[in-house]
Amino acid sequence: MPVAQYCLTAVDCRDPAALAGFYAALLGGEIKQDSEDWYDLYAPGGHRIAFQRAPDHRPPRWPSADGDSQQQLHLDLHVTDMAEAEALALSLGAAPLDLDDKDGRGFRVYADPAGHPFCLCRG
Q1: What is the pLDDT along the chain (123 residues), one digit of tens a residue?
Q2: Residues pairing with 10 in the sheet
């Protein structure tokens, strides 16, 4: 029998309001501010992502060539139109990390404006 229930993913960043806005523009939903240091995005489908101020946040490197820094986590976002989703993500400040589409792998990797990796996945 489980002793815990999942409720959200919290993402550290320097500017939680801006990063919540980035993901709200990609996913839709409603942003609720708890404090200057914490914003929640209530996305469609009942999903919740929190954005927490971490003044000294350093984004992980993608990919880590020297083993010094590893990806801590990433979000997978299903999309129906990869070109449209990519154009929107880039216009909102995402940076491409790995757009290789060889062998029809079905996903592309980007960094959000705070440097966290996320994937657009054909859904």
Answers
A1: 776 587 889 999 999 999 999 999 999 999 999 999 999 999 999 999 999 999 999 888 777 656 666 566 789 999 999 999 999 999 999 999 999 877 788 899 999 999 999 999 987
A2: 50
